[in-house]
Amino acid sequence: MLQIFCHQVLIFFNIISLTATQADISEFFDSHCESRCNFLEEHLNSKTKASFPTGCSTVCANLLIDDSTDISQDKMTLLFKNIKVLYGSLHVYRTNYTSGRFLAGLKVIECDSNGVFMWDENQNMIEIGMTSLTTCFCNFDVNYNSNMKWMNLPNLRNFSSINSNSTQRQIEMVIYSMPSNFCISIQEISNFIQNSNLYMGDLPKTFCPITSDFISGEKVCQFGIDATTLRNMTSNCVRVSGNITIEAGDEEFVYKLKSMKYLFGSLKIFNVNLTQVDFLSSLEYVVTLDNKPAIEMLSNHFVLNFTLPSIKRVRSTIQEWLYFALIEDELEAFIFKQPNVCSPFTDIYGRTVLYSTQIAGVHCEDKVPNVPSRNFPTSGRDNSAFSLHGCFQTIIFMIFVHFIC
Ligand SMILES: *[C@@H]1O[C@H](CO)[C@@H](O)[C@H](O)[C@H]1NC(C)=O
Ligand SMILES: *[C@@H]1O[C@H](CO)[C@@H](O)[C@H](O)[C@H]1NC(C)=O
Ligand SMILES: *[C@@H]1O[C@H](CO)[C@@H](O)[C@H](O)[C@H]1NC(C)=O
Ligand SMILES: *[C@@H]1O[C@H](CO)[C@@H](O)[C@H](O)[C@H]1NC(C)=O
Ligand SMILES: *[C@@H]1O[C@H](CO)[C@@H](O)[C@H](O)[C@H]1NC(C)=O
Ligand SMILES: *[C@@H]1O[C@H](CO)[C@@H](O)[C@H](O)[C@H]1NC(C)=O
Ligand SMILES: *[C@@H]1O[C@H](CO)[C@@H](O)[C@H](O)[C@H]1NC(C)=O
Question: In this entry, which stretches build a coiled coil (predicted)?
Fold first, then answer.
């Protein structure tokens, strides 16, 4: 029941966000396209396709491809063969296409503040397959595609506007109600996590099988597959997948994690006799898909200090990404003084806490009220204009809906 309710609410909001006023749309289109490159039809189908500006590489359109789109996959490929940049929105809904490869040439999609990049209820679709897409400055929503295996968006790495004058804004990604074998690739998530304005609220539950030993020249290791203990893990792994447990007996091998920059999975440090945790010195990004903290420190009674000097961003399914329990007072006091460990990650406006550190049942930012938050925009762009729009409230509401769903 709740799920159905939530789905309705989400659809309702997506519809609201698609129906921006005509004035907003024309202003947005006018500032980005020559009028001959606009496509103003509500639906794309065999009747309206003649007015699609096939000669333009930059097109302004709120593209709706849905169950009324009676155009073959091959004809769609022809229709879109020149398009590189789309301003507006893209909604692919209830089609019979097996792939979104007809949009494989598209490199950039940029929405106005209400637009979405949305793929839902496409029963036959195996992948989105927009393999040239590098930039998506749109809220991102993929749901109820019951045969999709993975997205296959290997080059999507940027969720900011390509126009330097454009306002930075928070982008929300939600991927939900997908089949149980649907996965997100390490390549995709490595690209996504680098964006400070991207909040990945819902993600698939699993990473795709790893098929390459290197990504961007960095060694990839699978803990639990290549090695099941720290003892026989190789020591030059930069991107590590798996659930790493460090327990009594592993102390002398912790140096092997010193080169780890990315962790896809989780890390649990339990009952060790180390006096310090200083071996996570390279760790920049942590992505956890399971319903548990990304990093847990439990019952390590000799540890006096814990540092994460390089941490940049995390993605966790629960808010408490970093969790300390059964720790000594000295370590607790030490952590309160470490902004890299204690500070919450917030949205780019600094208003909403996305992820926080929990120590003995207390959120660190509640204990240290003036601790600075992270994820502020680094570009120094002015966000005040954006805050006048209602979109921020919408995002908060969407986050709320996703939490109860
Ligand atoms: C999709 O397939 C179903 C079942 O074969 C058919 O009824 C429907 O018309 C098709 N939809 C489109 C848009 O081609
Ligand atoms: C995304 O693109 C913008 C504009 O081209 C650039 O300033 C920014 O650094 C890029 N972000 C990432 C994560 O590559
Ligand atoms: C950016 O804004 C400045 C100042 O308003 C303006 O001079 C410039 O032309 C703009 N650039 C673009 C690419 O719109
Ligand atoms: C890892 O260590 C276990 C025993 O500790 C051993 O059985 C296994 O063969 C080792 N694996 C590798 C890849 O060295
Ligand atoms: C981590 O453990 C969970 C079960 O707790 C499992 O579902 C998941 O696949 C593991 N993650 C990795 C990356 O191996
Ligand atoms: C820590 O534990 C390991 C094995 O668990 C043991 O070999 C070592 O001597 C212990 N170190 C200290 C300082 O107690
Ligand atoms: C952490 O604790 C160890 C052992 O007590 C100490 O040698 C080291 O200097 C401490 N590091 C920091 C950053 O306080």
Answer: none
- Is the whole-model pTM more than 0.70? yes
Kindly give, in sequence order, each residue whose CB lies less than 8 Å from that of residue 374, ignoring residues fewer than 6 positions away: 313, 343, 344, 345, 346
Distant-in-sequence, close-in-space partners of 81: CB < 8 Å, separation ≥ 6? 54, 105
Please tell me the distance between residue 158's alpha carbon and the centre of ligand 2 in angstroms.
6
* Backbone dihedral angles phi then psi of residue 305, each to the nearest 5 degrees: -150, 160
What's the CA-to-centroid distance between 39 and ligand 5, angstroms? 45
Specify whether the CB–CB gap between 322 and 295 falls below 8 A: yes
Domains, the chain: 2-197+385-404 (3.80.20.20), 214-367 (3.80.20.20)
How far apart are the C-alpha atoms of 138 and 180, rounded to whole Å? 26
Ligand 7 site, residue 276, Cβ cutoff 6 A? yes
| Contact yes or no for 99/76 (Cβ under 8 A) | no
pLDDT in tens, 297-356: 999 999 999 999 999 999 999 999 999 998 999 999 999 999 999 999 999 998 899 999
